[in-house]
User: What shape does this take?
Amino acid sequence: MPALSRASGLPEEDVETLLAGGTPPDVEPDVRVRQRVRFLYESHVNSDGQPKEIRDLADVIGQTTTWTRKLVAGEAKPNLMVGHLLTKYYNVAPTYLADPPDEALNRELQRPLRDLEIEVDPSQALKNLGVVHVAGRSADLTNPDLTALARMVASIAEDLAEVKFRLGGEGQEGSR
Assistant: This one.
């Protein structure tokens, strides 16, 4: 549960509530963004278990250390550019800061779901990804080979969707 909480930006209690079919308490979008920035800062730590240095984070987002301290304390709200730089710096989904809880959890559950679908039927997964024909020695491909190939194609498709999203084009549904 902690990994899903960290990846989605949701407190563990909200993840548990959503997985049980419930609805976590609703908060205003401004409050949600501030909470997610604070959660991002506190949960994405260095190898020593400490959050990133404020001055390093301030440099990345082009802000003063004083304002950055307020930002990570939840006392300030990022503008669009700062939000974009934060999600990029922490390598999280572009919509991480603003997604409602159900969408945030759904976003993070898509990858494991895709992986399960690939495991069950890699040939069908490849077809769903648009691969019509596997050329070459496809008759020699084993099920693990097809699974690895389907994972690779899915990863490429996800990366392309992310590029399209960041460029402002189509493909937001598959981002991250």
